[in-house]
Amino acid sequence: MKYFLLLTAMAAHAAAAPVSYDIVVYGGTSGGVIAAVQAAKSGRSVVLISPTPHLGGLTTSGLGWTDLGESSILGGLSREFYHRVYQHYQNDAAWNWQSRSAYGNAGQGGPAFNATTQVASVFEPKVAESIFLTMIQERNVPVVTGRLDLGNGVVSSSGKIDHIRLEDGREFAGKIFIDASYEGDLLPGAGVSFTVGREANATYGEDYSGIQSARATKNQLPNGIDPYVTAGNAASGLLPGVNATAGGADGAGDDKLQAYCFRMALTDVPANRVAIPKPPGYNEADYELLFRAIEAGQTSGFFKFDLMPNRKTDSNNNGGISTDYIGKNYGPGWNWTTLNHDQRLALAKQHENWQRGLIWTLQNHARVPSNIRTNYSQWGLPADEFTDNGNWPWQLYVREARRMVSDYVMNQRHCSGESVAADSIGLAAYAMDSHHTQRHVKNGVVKNEGDVQMAVGNPYPVSYRSIVPKAGQCRNLLVPWSLSASHMAFGSIRMEPVFMILSQSAALGADLAIRDNLDVQQVPYSKLRPVLVAAGQALGEPSAGSPEIVVDNTDTPRVTVTGTWTSGTSTTGYIGSDYIHDGNTGQGANQVAYTPPASVTGVQRVYLRWTSHTNRASNVPVRVVDAKGTRTILVDQKSNGGKWNLLGLFKGVQSVTIMTTAANGYVIADAVGFAPVSADDDTDDDGVSDIREVEVGLNPLVSNSTFFDAIRSHPDYFNLHSDGEIFDLHIHQPVYTPSLLRFGITMGPASDVFENFQLVAPQQPGKRFFRIALHSDPAAFVTALAAGQNRTIVVYGTSLTASGAWVSQMSAWLSAKYPNKFTIVNSGLSGKNSAEGLAQLQTKVLNRNPDTVFIEFAMNDAFLYSDGTPSLSVQQAKTNLETMIQAIQQQNPQVEIILQTMNTVWNSPTGSNQSASLRPNLAAYYEMYRDVAAGRGLLLIDHQANWAALQGRSPATFQSYVQDGVHPNAEGCAKVTLPLLQWKLSGGRELP
Fold this sequence. Notes:
Largest sheet: 7 strands, mixed
Shape: globular
Distance between the termini: 58 Å
Number of strands: 49
Number of helices: 26
Structural class: alpha+beta
Radius of gyration: 35 Å
């Protein structure tokens, strides 16, 4: 019976329609919690779906000795979390197993409790979980416990995730999805590019990626450990977990994962200590490598004892053989990401048993020296942590799994500061830290391979582009953990504080995407950065970024050196093997010219790099030749060395030349860089794109907002020209058809009328310009609504009206401006032409006594019926339309009639498959509507031109908007139909 009830419940879930939210966050991790809280804070409907019943991921599962790097990176909700931790421990009641004074104040790289910043970086797991739950509850975020169906759980259409499905059948739809899982589990089903493992050094021009055997000096095994089951006997086989080789040369890529472990919480307080018994299935052979390491000299470092408050530890891997279960998260044809949920739980249990067995062995086994047993015997599990899980942490430390491969990949150069992301959504500051990946035989003994601990000099920005998929891939997914980063860069970014930072920024980006109806890839950074700053995020100083294409001084085919130059390496920060300098001689004769490769086209950011020194020139002339001519910029090489310096934005760059003319010191020639400027870039955030500003001769790096505001607000050109120079022309009642633009022009308030474009300018001295004001009146009903008058509006036509989303969208737009002032009656007739429209005119329109009537029947008038329904010629359709107009006007001479042409069509396989073929002359019926509107002086809203342009420009987009071939969906109406309605009905006063 219980089994039957379970199946019934699952079937009920499966049958239910997806529950819809603005933002769906998958992953109950620390980042997932922060993303959901921010989404709710932004006023969005949000759900947090957690595969586990406990929230917080590693932050609540033992990682209480925070890998922070620099506290200056904290901002927004991440800082709020660590501030709440600080506040918790200011209360004496928080110290129940030791006194506050007895704890001290040691944290990683700084104080555990920083009185200046009032943040804490060290804490107990249960405290972290309590704070996360409070933040969730304060924002009323609904939390669903359930696991993604890893096989078919991501349901996408038209390049977007429509909804996700859990294993029990429940489904959740969203406008935006945030993958906050440690595994990046939404990526495969969403069709997003990703990788698993380590890239080769050559992939991103790195030094420490791929296999690292020679450099694996930290957390290394002692020398002399025999690799065979029976020492000295190769025939006995290798010890478990030991490979015969490293699998390739250093720097080569592979698909191996760095090791996982549990961040154990231990305590030596007897009243709170739970002993760790020998785990089930304990096998002494699994610890043979431990015994041999001890025999070879390892006496400590089997795990860390970093102290959290109340005599608890955050015990992490710390030696040649320690808590990392090296090589156990992948195998031939599989890795952690390819396992299903139950298989992951089983593998995590193996990790748990290994670590429990490690402690038991160190405390009890006869092959462990007594002094080591004594040192470790005082530690056990804290009874007041993880009380529903045998006092063991809930979350395995999944250090690295899938990593997205997007259009922008964070790599080692970003961590070192050599490259700088211009679209910072948060800072990272921890070292590039990868744990060992495998054990192998090297020079006849066992060694660990893969550990990298490479320092990061300063906090560096993480790019927004690294958390969104490639353009053309999933348009509504953000990925703050499994982001687009190389193995090297991920080793630095993957810290829990950064996860929280990027997750909050992801939620803020999602809010903007929803607000402006954009793909996540289209969110302009000029709009995102102010939002992030307002939310308190630490982003670093605004940056011009760094080049994508570099020409170094050693790139002989693209560099022309004139005069005498000397190679130098004495000051750091140069690109490549060296830089060159002029020796402070030959001023004017020496120069170095850089020619960009053919791929450098359009508008480009041009960068220059040098190394600083007090003997450098402060007035180095740099000549840039581009499509606009030749310009010379002076740069100060005494400062800002060792980084990319932006020279400016240039169109059609032909050459960049470092000159020495009149230089007052040594001149350095190192490297020139180029980065393309996209159409949406607005570096100075003045509302005009960088490309447009370059084209009109303005500086795109300095805000011209005052200038543009003046232009917008002063039609008299803000006195650039006097009234005495200008003729005033006024255009009245413009009517547009594909073949003709009809309008009348008057010169002055009531002067001569010009009927066509053949204008002859009066010959008067000093008159050089025409000033034209376009007058277009709003729809009559809009004017009435603005005056506070109630109106009844009837929309009449085919199924494009009867079930068209444009009707409700127009109603919503009007309601926001004129609430409770109008009634819209939808009298659409699905499948009917204008003959039926005329037949039902009395009941559908006239009986409603409308003030305004919208009419469109051309779509069905143009249809070639095969069921006996008479087809209508263009002339018959015109007669029906004019008869309807006359009848409506006869009932109410003051009525307003608005005609509409609608969308174009195509032969969709999901519709009738003949939508276009059965309307071969649709364009002629639309032209008839234009003629009737012009002849009767009616307002025409001509949608057909916009739809035809979209169909020609982007067929895929058009077809996604008109999926059945005839009827635009809600997105299509919002993108194409509604904007023109707003523009026309408001008399051109309201931009969509």
